[in-house]
Amino acid sequence: MNFAMPDLYPASAEIFILIMACVTLVVDLLVGASRRWLIYLLAQLTLIGCFAITLLTGDNQTVTTFSNLYIDDRFGDILKLATYGCVAIVLVYGRSYLAVRNLDSGEFYLLTLFATLGMMVLISANNFMTIYLGLELLSLSLYAMVALDRDSTRATEAAMKFFVLGAMASGILLYGMSMIYGATGTLDLIEIGQRLAMGGSKTVLLFGLVFLVAGLAFKLGVVPFHMWIPDVYHGAPTAVTLFIGSATKIAAFAMAMRLLVMGMFDLVEHWQQMLMVLAALSIALGNVAGIAQTNLKRMLAYSAIAHMGYMLLGLLSGVVGGHLGNVWNAYSSAMFYTFSYVLMSLGAFGMILALSRAGFEAERLEDFKGLNKRSPWFAAIMMVLMFSMAGMPFFIGFFAKFMVLQSVVNAGYVWLAVFAVAFSLVGAFYYLRVVKLMYFDAPSDHAPLEVPADMRLLLSVNGLLVALLGIMPGAVLEYCTSATYSFLTGQ
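-> structure tokens emitted (491 positions)
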């Protein structure tokens, strides 16, 4: 391996956010609690700086650096830009919620920046070592963020469960990586793909692949590795739940693409069957279990399990009969579905934050009763979000599901598409139940909604985008197609 001085230019955004995280740490020590807004502003400026640097340093060429540990391509750039935007929205939505609970400490913003750095490393990983580094940086930050409210036994319990199960999943993933390294003699994803293409015995590789998919499934939160999702979503402060339920899904999708498509593509007939089982179980359990929930955060947790199952349908339907028949539309549809879900998740958890106030968590379904009488505009936004999550025309959720199911049908898995549609109809019940409570039930809470102006504006834009992108998805779809083209061709 060549350890010459690496080219730092492609990783400028990562270097910048690391420096700014250290600056944030020092500034937080110097300013008092009354000037906490400076830390918030610094975190937002850091994300804006990363956005600008990624735009300026990105081009249409695929470049590797750090001895091929890091890859800079259009696929990674688009995912990073989406991550910056997502994290910035999380900070806007969560700021007032954290402030009234005395949780808007510098630690929250610092952990957010380090978690974002972990996601950036994960998105640009070209080696098992880099994947594990980015994953652990993200995971360790999330464990601490879930336990941010030290006075809450629910948050502490959720953090402990998350930590124990996350450590186990990381060990499983690392064990799978070690077996693949033992069989191929390399940690480089591109070299692994090349050596798999040469043929030979695949017994050890298949064992390693099973552990690899299991670890990946935990990070995605799909059945049967979903047990942490409901407890963590419910126990964590809602602003942290918003972060876990949105931005991290982009990094998990990138991790799946790098590991399975870039590194293990020659074993596609094996991991394709594994993903099929994971997707079917996730769609079934997520939609059925969601019906029984009375807590909106837990309901959205099971919704996330089902939605990740639909995303997996796009990944598994890229290859038809062992040949590259449907790969283009399939991976584009999976990426589009990820973006669509993140946008919907931001809005849904943003509404919970908007209705919450000091001493009150608006996380029960009953808390949304009669919302139309209290605020017709916010009720309309929540209705759009619920309709979109249910996959009803003509919102972005419908178009995302349609693209994924079309890829599944083109791959020849008609039965799987029918299965997914059937359980999508089952899942529509618990989304429409929220709409029924808002419009047809008397309000149980008559307190006025006090939503900060920036959050009110951004939440409105969020809801409108969910509606408009379902009718005019061309721009987002073009970016997804361009990204997958770069990923598959290296151009």
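The mean pLDDT is 89.
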